[in-house]
Amino acid sequence: MGKGDRNDTIRLQSMRAALDRATLTEALNLIEAWNFKLAEGSTPQFSPTIGCAINAGMPWLRLHCPGCQQTTDLDLRRIVRPRDYPITALKLTCEAMCRGLKGLSENGRV
Ligand SMILES: [Zn+2]
After folding, report:
1. Ranges of each domain in the chain
2. What is the pTM for the complete model shown?
3. CA atoms of 6 and 102, how far apart (whole Å)
4. Mean pLDDT throughout 42-49?
5. Distance 11 CA to ligand 1 centre (A)
């Protein structure tokens, strides 16, 4: 180990912390923009990924079934998909509530 190792470690930790803050900020901005579009009743032209929601600290997806008018929350951390999988690509049906006869609204919010 050389003399500058401690400084390199501190510099590396600082860079990682800045990257983590940037990732968190980007994830939060995407989730908030998506939620805003859904709240105003429009369909966003993008979909956050499962990893984005988890990175933003907002891993719960709220679903509403237009068939039975029930709402449920889904923990995205328990979905068996890659973290780069778009949330809107999830094929969700209302099996727990009305047996999937009507399907779930795409208006899920994180
Ligand atoms: Zn239903």
Report:
1. 5-89
2. 0.72
3. 60
4. 93
5. 52
